[in-house]
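user: Please review this fold.
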Amino acid sequence: MTKALTIAAGDSVATMLDDAGAGDRIGDVALSAAVPRGHKVALVPIAAGDPVIKFGFPIGVARRAIAPGEHVHSDNLATGLSGTGSYVYDPKPVPVADALTDATFEGYVRADGRVGTRNEIWILPTVGCVARTAERIAKQAGAALAGQIDGVHAFTHPHGCSQLGQDLDGVRAILASLACHPNAGGVLLVGLGCEENQVDALLAAIPEERRGAIRYLTAQFSTDEVEEGCALVAELAAQAAMPRQVVGLDRLVLGVKCGGSDGLSGLTANPLVGRISDRVAEAGGRVVFTEIPEMFGAEQMLMDRAADAGVFDRMVGVINGFRQYFIDHGEPISENPSPGNVAGGITTLEEKSLGAVQKAGRTTVTDVIGYGERIHRDGLTLLEAPGNDAVSSTALAAAGATAILFTTGRGTPLGFPVPTVKIASNSDLAARKPGWIDFDAGAVLAEGFEAAEAALIARICAIASGAPTAAERNDEREIAIWKRGVTL
């Protein structure tokens, strides 16, 4: 019997757990053609125009009649999404997860009570013109300070000049929020001098109580900006020195993200991360989730978990604002999944969204914040940002995530300012790319969720305590800033 998984009662399709050929059977249903792992097969007759059901919800409509045993994919399944949405505030009871009261990690406790998972010096250029300068400072200072601090890293970008309005504000907001991050024991701002994103304006966006851990230089006014920068980094490192302390997971801030998803992501890795999200939130910790366009088709499920009518209204505003963003640019809101997602078995945005939102678990949504903002509340926070891996992960770090759980079915080497834990949706990927992957969620299919959850919690605690992620070992640390407007 071919292995396949039906997720919810009433689903009209099952997802293949292994490659299958014509004639292979799923119960009483014989496959009429080969169906790859992660792809869908019809279990019942589906009439043209009828909804196709997976996760217990419609993932689109049938383009034509589909017979039992047929491969269900792009040729016979279409999205049902269009325009902005109309939503109803109808809160549902939220199940209570067991808190992770006995799990701990060794973190850096800051003066304001926040806890970092790393104690690094971050170098943030105000403008792309001094990106290479920032990198040279990081390289020289990092070598000189090896062993005294967890690392010296420059986070470069091409922005900060020839920008107006929303774009300039976004650059400044992201950099100011990164400058406040608890994983940075100190921050050096490197400016050029003539850019729109002036150092003084960036400093003004950083709370006064944080400025003691900030240094800055302006390259046009420095005789030797690299020498000056290295001296400032050394000063910051001496000031930042501190030991790790044992703390509970109530002091952890997790960002949750998926990228390069496949048809198994919504069955293994994403629901596994959702279980971690619930437990951390219930323990009093914080979880941040984003990728707004990858909620289209599943957003009402999230809205039903809003803490109150105000949170619900802000969720509606962010989601419909993103839908309108697509419409204003003449693009269909369903222009997703990506080619890699499609090759992995995901057909429509509804299907992708229903799998993606599982990373947020089932707990209450306590807050909604804008792009570039920092997290305010315990529990689960919705962050405004697009689905793009680099842009959204940077926004998660800027919001205050001290580690990111990043699920993937196709694989990616990318890493971000904070430890980025790559979680494979299938064991084949984990075996093929051990240099990229930190955890194999494909084990869920053999061992069940409870065993995989315990193993993942242990891995998260080890990484939060200093064990390097695959991306950190590969020196993969990037930021990307959302560009929405005019370049001069």
User: Anything to note?
Assistant: The mean pLDDT is 95. The two ends are 62 Å apart (CA to CA).
